[in-house]
Here is the input.
Amino acid sequence: MCNKDLFFRNFGNGKPIVILHGILGSSEIWVPTAKILSAKNRVIIPDLPNHGNSLHTNSLNYDYICDTIVSFLKTNNIDKPIVIGHSYGGKIALNLVAKKNIDIEKIVLIDITSEEQTVSNMEFLFDILAKPLPHLSSFAEAEKYFYNIIDEKNMALLLLKGLKRTEKTLTWKWNANLLSQQYTEILKPINLLPTSNVPLLLISGEHSDYVSTNGIELLKSSFKKFSHITIPDAGHWVHTDNFDELIKTITAFVG
Here is the structure.
């Protein structure tokens, strides 16, 4: 579905849950999660700006992106949602609370906190986005190309999901120029409120280095109703590394 500037997927009925994907992600990745949660809830997954089938903008600034999300929620009459955010999507969710843009019932943060991040092991992906793609006539050809230049299969598949077909070749669905040029914007910290009554669950991957002790303490000091669960046998991509455990954890918190 498409509502003005944001493409989104919609499942089920009931209490609204909005899932915000990570950087270089898309709504498609979270469909399995949405289908399970939609047994009791309405689940909405937008493609974030500059991703998937949504609009391309001129900025990755968190305030600017949050304004787009707020407009989307209001246009679609999504009141007091539970917001689930992975990585970049989680920082967007935190900024929605910090700016008091919209009422949020609960937040689930997946493997991210509010603190500033260092340049991550995904930097090489943005280097790829900064360069022109070769002529790729099929997804099979693109898959072979990415496997040749990237050692990690999951990262290669991530890039593959960012492609779309044109008349003569494959090209990026993402706003590749903006993402490669302003990637450091997503590393910036979110300035939290001194105190918030929004219940927050932080889910971290056992083998991930995205959640530090300092990041946990920052969330604890802001959110009165804070809880933290570590998912075993999972890294930053918790939803692919240990899907069943993630679903159980989210379902118990959502209620």
Notes: The chain has ten helices and ten strands. The longest helix spans residues 62-75. The longest strand covers residues 6-11. The chain has two domains: 2-116+189-254, 123-181.
